[in-house]
Amino acid sequence: MAEFPDAIVEAWLTRRIRLVPPILFLWLVSVVVLVFCLFTEISRGRRFEGEVQQRKKRKPWVRISDTGELQPRDDDSEEVDCIIVGAGVAGAALACTLAKDGRKVKVFERDLTEQDRIVGELLQPGGYMKLLELGLEGRGFHNGRFVQRMRMKAASNPLINLEQANVLSLIESDGIVKGVRYKSLVGEEKNFHAPMTFVCDGSFSNLRRSVTNPKVRTPSWFVGLIVEDCSSLPFANHGHVILADPSPILFYPISSTEVRCLVDVPGDKVPSGSNGQMAKYLSTVVAGQLPLKLRKPFLQAIDKSKIRAMPNKSMPAIPRARPGVLVLGDALNMRHPLTGGGMTVALTDIVILRDMLRTIQDFSNAPALCDYLQDFYVLRKPMAATINILADSLYKVFSATDMVEEVRRQACFEYLGMGGMFSSGPMGLLGGLNPSIAILIFHFLLLTAYGLARVLLPFPSPSRLWIAIRLIWKAPSILLPSIRNESLMPSFNFKWLMTYRYTIVMSLFMLSSIYFLV
Ligand SMILES: Cc1cc2nc3c(=O)[nH]c(=O)nc-3n(C[C@H](O)[C@H](O)[C@H](O)COP(=O)(O)OP(=O)(O)OC[C@H]3O[C@@H](n4cnc5c(N)ncnc54)[C@H](O)[C@@H]3O)c2cc1C
User: Fold this and answer.
1) 148 CB under 6 A from ligand 1?
2) By C-alpha distance, which of 156, 185, 179, 182 is closest to 79?
3) Global pTM value
4) Residue 491: pLDDT above 50?
5) pLDDT tens track for 84-116
6) Does the pLDDT value for residue 55 go beyond 70?
7) Fewest CB atoms within 10 Å of the CB: 268, 309, 311, 332?
8) Is the Cβ atom of 162 under 6 angstroms away from ligand 1?
9) Which of 137-141, 459-463, 511-515 reaches the highest mean pLDDT?
10) Does 332 contact ligand 1 (Cβ within 6 A)?
């Protein structure tokens, strides 16, 4: 066997030996950084735990009476970490979450009684996972009962002061929001101050205008009634979308005996309920389009149940934090409720916010906190944008207005019916389990290709060719406006350096070791 000449081996060793000092220096720096990171993490964790324990020792601010009613105590004197306006889905969940982390929270809710609403009765699996993460699990429900249970949970926490009051405005000084002005239950107007205010006052928010310049659209209304016969559903325990003319109708169970029906009425007005126009519309225009099994219970529901209407609003989030205030839930962002994604987005936002705020000891430095919270709008984008774009686009596809759109609607129905990835992909997006805009665009392109094949095959006659051209021509108008609304330009920042500091340090270690050994 040939041996290496001594001179070559010697030169190689000399080169390696020359590298020893810089490598040792690199190792030393890595060790110092690692020890520093570990030390700061451990000490911050200890301090945080200590603070949480100390705050938990305080007395409850709100009592729950023997009958289960919330009885707020008038105890404004104590300082709080933050104010939450609105104890709906977002506000109640946020209050519980912040209090769990040891923050002292003041919540203002204008109506603490159980609300009877037609909104938020179907929670997508992605939203349910977020509820589990927040430790607030609940299921297919009456929205009022669900929200009331979360309020009870909040009220039983000693760190949360829940008060029934109507918040009138935000208090500002030097461009920083310092608290809120509110009208108490007895009609007295008062101020309440805190370093941070979270505005969660829902779709009709009167406070968001003082923070952003919202662009709200109302493409349609949902008219809601309750069908009292679950056996009338074609598939038990499933949600149903009926592709009716001019727009879809939803049916889904909300208890073991009740089915919620939501009829979409396009436009910014609905037939009046008081003069019987609504009942007439439902029985003449809608009933005839339902499956036979559902018709009779639906007609009975028109006579028996309370018919209510809610505007289906759509509003892109404006990624602008202001010192001392953050807008959340429907007050920040809305999409068509066809896919039932609103609560999933709101709960995901709260998980993201909780994780971000965990690293902040107190909220007193409003400008710095505001800067830091700018990242919240980037982090929420994958889930929020996917659900928003899907909801608004699917509504356009399902509300066929002409023959070309009808072709697309049928293509969509058949596409989803093919099963496999053609249904699991879109369902993963809709359920909030796989939030990805790329996958959404991929399925939209595939759906358009399927629609074209459906029209052109087996023989592309001139009229079919014309439909195909219009199908392609109109496709961008379905997805692009929503994509534009979501301002999907990536936002670059270097916070990832901090997030991945351990990985970076360890990688330096490994690389230097490998280099040294080789
Ligand atoms: C017809 C319809 C059906 C829907 N269906 C679904 C569905 O099936 N699944 C789903 O996930 N989403 C659904 N959504 C969306 C969902 O309801 C919302 O995304 C969700 O309720 C948003 O929660 P929020 O806390 O922001 O608002 P809300 O739950 O509306 O809570 C706002 C709270 O703020 C209080 N408040 C308002 N103003 C003040 C004030 N000035 N002072 C004090 N308190 C105030 C209100 O009383 C209320 O309690 C639907 C929406 C509509 C319109």
Assistant:
1) no
2) 179
3) 0.82
4) no
5) 999 999 999 999 999 999 999 999 999 999 888
6) no
7) 268
8) no
9) 459-463
10) no
Is the CB of 113 inside a 6 Å radius of any atom of ligand 1?
no
Tokens of 360: 């902040």
First to last CA, the chain: 22
Helix (H) or strand (E) holding 190, with range, is strand 189-193
Residue 26 is encoded by which pair of tokens?
């690199």
Q: Which atom of ligand 1 is nearest to the CA of 207?
A: 41
* The pair of three-digit structure tokens given for residue 58, joined into one six-digit string: 């305080």
Q: Is the shortest distance between the CB of 431 and ligand 1 below 6 Å?
A: no
- Smallest CA separation from ligand 1 atom 14, residue: 120
Helix (H, G, I), strand (E, B) or coil at 170: strand
Under 8 Å between Cβ of 180 and 198: no
150 CA to centre of ligand 1 in angstroms: 14
Report how far ligand 1's centroid is from the alpha carbon of 367 (Å).
Answer: 29
Which long-range contacts (C-beta less than 8 Å, at least 24 apart) are formed by 116-121?
Answer: 116/142, 116/144, 117/143, 117/144, 117/310, 118/143, 118/222, 118/224, 118/260, 118/262, 118/308, 118/310, 119/143, 119/310, 119/337, 119/342, 120/89, 120/146, 120/147, 120/342, 120/343, 121/252, 121/254, 121/260
CA 159/CA 59 separation, integer angstroms: 8
The b/e string for 269-281 (b: 16+ C-beta within 10 A; e otherwise) is: ebbeeeeeebbeb
Task: Indicate if the alpha-carbon torsion angle 118, 123, 124, 126 is positive or negative.
Answer: positive
Ligand 1 within 6 A of CB of 88: yes
d(CA 157, CA 473): 56
Nearest CA, atom 13, ligand 1: 120
Beta bridge partner(s), residue 191: 181
- Cα(253)–Cα(255) distance, integer angstroms: 6
pLDDT of residue 88: 95
Cα 100 to middle of ligand 1, angstroms: 23
Atom nearest to 127 CA in ligand 1: 11
